[in-house]
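Hi all, posting the design record for the shared folder.

TITLE: backbone redesign
STEP: 1 of 1
STRUCTURE INPUT:
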């Protein structure tokens, strides 16, 4: 398996504070595993909790929403769990099996497609976005950020966090 923190494209936290979106880059090491990511997200304020948006190696993304003790998860591609520890830990937390090698061509999301439905992007739209084979994870997350109302800030922070 690959070393996650060296291949994280970006890790971003977004949260509403007094009705205004705040978007901050996280250190890549914060996304090295799910436990560290959740712990980091819990340190951020937020009227509706915090959203962690992580893109790994132009291969997949993870969205984590933390509100108090509640943690909601979305993995864009279950087949990523065969290669990446972060993706595997998401499936483990969701109590879903890792796909067999012969299933690796069956790309599908796992977790809570309604993770941001109350913020402006429903489960069907998020599912359709995850199913688009022409988009890279950063493009998918940019679309999510646009729909939720913090697209420009997300793109600025994600570009700073890359490279």
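Okay, here is what came back for every position:
SEQUENCE:
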């Amino acid at each position: 398996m690959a070393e996650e923190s060296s291949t994280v494209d970006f890790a971003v936290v977004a949260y509403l504070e007094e009705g205004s979106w705040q978007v901050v880059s996280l250190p890549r090491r914060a996304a090295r595993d799910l436990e560290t990511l959740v712990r980091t997200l819990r340190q951020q304020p937020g009227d509706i909790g915090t959203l962690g948006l992580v893109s790994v190696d132009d291969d997949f993304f993870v969205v984590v929403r933390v509100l108090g003790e509640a943690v909601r998860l979305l993995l864009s591609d279950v087949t990523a769990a065969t290669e990446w520890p972060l993706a595997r830990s998401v499936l483990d937390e969701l109590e879903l099996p890792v796909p067999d090698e012969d299933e690796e061509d069956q790309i599908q999301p796992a977790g809570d497609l309604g993770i941001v439905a109350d913020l402006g992007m429903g489960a069907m739209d998020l599912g359709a976005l995850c199913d688009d084979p022409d988009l890279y994870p950063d493009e998918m997350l940019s679309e999510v950020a646009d729909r939720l109302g913090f697209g420009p800030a997300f793109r600025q922070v994600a570009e700073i966090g890359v490279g």
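COMMENT: The chain has a mean pLDDT of 90.
Let me know if anyone wants the other runs.
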